[in-house]
């Protein structure tokens, strides 16, 4: 969307408030968890009135989802690099993910969100549909391109492929069972590509 | 340890009480979570006095660990089958795991425990050392036997191998992102063995 010519100040102020609300929400989810999160606390942290929040979002759940949606859009976008080299591209993407999860400001709210969705099947379904599915689709699109290039098997199960690539990293991160390193990212890609070789 | 000859009744009563405490602990962790679990509630549910619990365990954490330790000993023991066929053996083990996690009585307390350890680095370290490490060692022993038989690469990273096998299943289960089926267990084994082929 091209920027509006001569964007008026109120719109810019609104956008600043919206971003402050989303940031405050992510911080507070990490600090107190989803269950104890309140619209009052978000408003206070963001420096806006409660009514401002209710004007834009109809529930706490709606704010939290937009907060994480914004984060995931900022963080990895929705198109994966495609240089034609699936190994190099996946390693770049997975190394970036490892680096993100080493950043407490990024990982703490995601950890809080994961604890919530692991304990709440309905929230988990919303998460899958609104947050995970679009990102997974972008990743599968990159794998399809590698299939067309003959770099991975034409009949590969791409959902399983994503799990083989990301679930070990997810588990190490969530349970803190071993360090997340660039070398680990590379090893996961190497193993996946061996498993999916034509 | 061989059973004591002429085991007296009080010992048998003690063992019944101990098992009742462990069972009550698992049930309550699933129902109220670790944070809200109390020794009082465990005692009431198990039909024993609080002092009985304090005589055997020095803390709530100690009871909870023994409760899960007992479950994991009952559930999968510590030696994997070794028929000489690594594919068949791993598929049998992973199908059994899938079946366990389909059982609400088994999975609910494990889910509660996982939420606790994901939010508490110290509990996570204890879990790794006391619960996960012995089971992982048994699994790696089976993989080493497959290495000696030339069925998987001699230089394979066995910790990573276990993650490739179990982390996708763990993630599907924890986030309820897709069904856990016997066919899924088989597919994970097939992919692992392709990745680790000599």
TrEMBL record, chains A, B:
Residues 15-75 form the HTH tetR-type domain. Gene3D superfamilies: Homeodomain-like, Tetracycline Repressor, domain 2. Residues 38-57 bind DNA. Keywords: DNA-binding, Transcription, Transcription regulation. The keyword Metal-binding does not apply. It holds the Pfam family TetR_C_11. GO terms for molecular function: DNA-binding transcription factor activity; transcription cis-regulatory region binding. InterPro entries: Homeodomain-like_sf, HTH-type_TetR-like_transc_reg, HTH_TetR, Tet_transcr_reg_TetR-rel_C_sf, TetR_C. This is TetR family transcriptional regulator.
């Amino acid at each position: 969307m091209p920027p509006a010519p001569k964007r008026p100040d109120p719109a810019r102020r609104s956008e600043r408030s919206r971003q402050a609300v989303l940031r405050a929400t992510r911080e507070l989810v990490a600090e107190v968890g989803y269950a104890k999160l309140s619209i009052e606390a978000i408003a206070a942290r963001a420096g806006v009135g409660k009514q401002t929040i209710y004007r834009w979002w109809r529930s706490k759940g709606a704010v939290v989802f937009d907060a994480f949606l914004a984060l995931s859009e900022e963080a990895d976008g929705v198109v994966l690099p495609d240089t034609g080299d699936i190994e190099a591209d996946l390693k770049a993407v997975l190394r970036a993910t490892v680096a993100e999860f080493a950043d407490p400001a990024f990982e703490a709210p995601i950890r809080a969100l994961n604890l919530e969705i692991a304990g709440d099947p309905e929230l988990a379904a919303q998460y899958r549909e609104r947050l995970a599915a679009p990102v997974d689709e972008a990743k599968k699109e990159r794998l399809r391109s590698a299939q067309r290039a003959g770099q991975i098997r034409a009949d590969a199960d791409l959902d399983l492929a994503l799990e083989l690539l990301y679930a070990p990293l997810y588990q190490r991160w969530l349970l803190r069972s071993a360090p997340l390193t660039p070398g680990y990212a590379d090893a996961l890609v190497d193993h996946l590509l061996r498993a999916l070789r034509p």
